[in-house]
Amino acid sequence: MSLFSPSILAADFSNLREEIKKVEKADFLHLDVMDGRFVPNISFGPGLIKALRPYSSLKFDTHLMIVEPEKYITTFAEVGSDLITVHAEVVTHLDRVISQIKDKGCKAGVALNPSTPLNVLEYVLDKIDYILLMTVNPGYGGQSFIPLMFQKIVKLKELIQESNLDIKIEIDGGVNLDNINELSNAGVDIFVAGSAIFKTDNPADTLAKMREKTK
């Protein structure tokens, strides 16, 4: 069964409490934390996540697009994150940081940028709960899906099956009603969508349509 993690990066920040109510039938709420260093944009930090936590029963899917994420794992866990994802590109000791996330009682995810090869996961694969493939270059919402990422999704699915591991594949970037069925067939388990949900007239209805297309 496909899972959905709407990204609040595309929501109306002047009315976030109402915005997250529109996607209450999702499975996660995706929280893109950007520092202006690893990616060319700044979004929000733990203060916003803490403020939102009382107003949603969804699991918080916190995606740390920041340098030195190991310094902030405890903070993001304490403000209500259920899943914490770090980028392999900025973590020197990936095995250690994955353990750090799990020690805080959170699910651990590792994200890969479009040009990052899958082999960077070789020696930590058995410790990861989720792998987040960026299907656009991170930093901004509303970008188009990079077609070559279909091939990367299929290869990752094969790698997970060959390893006989229970790891979810999550993708972020350019997901919409036109490509979601093909992405589901390629092996995606969790879909992050921002503009494709929050920029529509009825986000709840759009989410329901996406679910229908992945059945």
TrEMBL record:
EC no. given is: 5.1.3.1
| InterPro entries per record | Aldolase_TIM (IPR013785), Ribul_P_3_epim (IPR026019), Ribul_P_3_epim-like (IPR000056), RibuloseP-bd_barrel (IPR011060)
The family annotation for this protein states: Belongs to the ribulose-phosphate 3-epimerase family.
Query: What is the name attached to this protein's record?
Result: Ribulose-phosphate 3-epimerase
**Mitochondrion found in the keyword field:** no
Q: Which cofactor does it need?
A: a divalent metal cation; Fe(2+); Co(2+); Zn(2+)
* GO terms classed as biological process: pentose catabolic process; pentose-phosphate shunt
UniProt remark on cofactor binding: Binds 1 divalent metal cation per subunit.
Membrane spanning residue stretches: none
Task: Tell me the residue numbers annotated for binding a divalent metal cation.
Answer: H30, D32, H63, D172
Alphabetized CDD domains for the sequence: RPE
Give the protein's biological function: Catalyzes the reversible epimerization of D-ribulose 5-phosphate to D-xylulose 5-phosphate.
Its keywords, alphabetically, are: Carbohydrate metabolism, Cobalt, Isomerase, Manganese, Metal-binding, Zinc
Q: Which residues form a coiled coil?
A: none
Instruction: Kindly list the positions annotated as binding substrate.
Output: S7, H63, G139, Y140, G141, G142, D172, G173, G174, G194, S195
Active site per the UniProt annotation = D32, D172
Q: Which GO terms describe its cellular component?
A: cytoplasm
HAMAP family noted in UniProt: RPE (MF_02227)
Q: Please verify whether the record's keywords include Zinc.
A: yes
Concerning SUPFAM superfamilies, the annotation shows:
Ribulose-phoshate binding barrel
What are the boundaries of the signal sequence?
A: none
Looking up PANTHER family in the UniProt record yields: RIBULOSE-5-PHOSPHATE-3-EPIMERASE (PTHR11749)
Single GO term (MF): metal ion binding
Its pathway is: Carbohydrate degradation
Q: Which reaction does it catalyse?
A: D-ribulose 5-phosphate = D-xylulose 5-phosphate
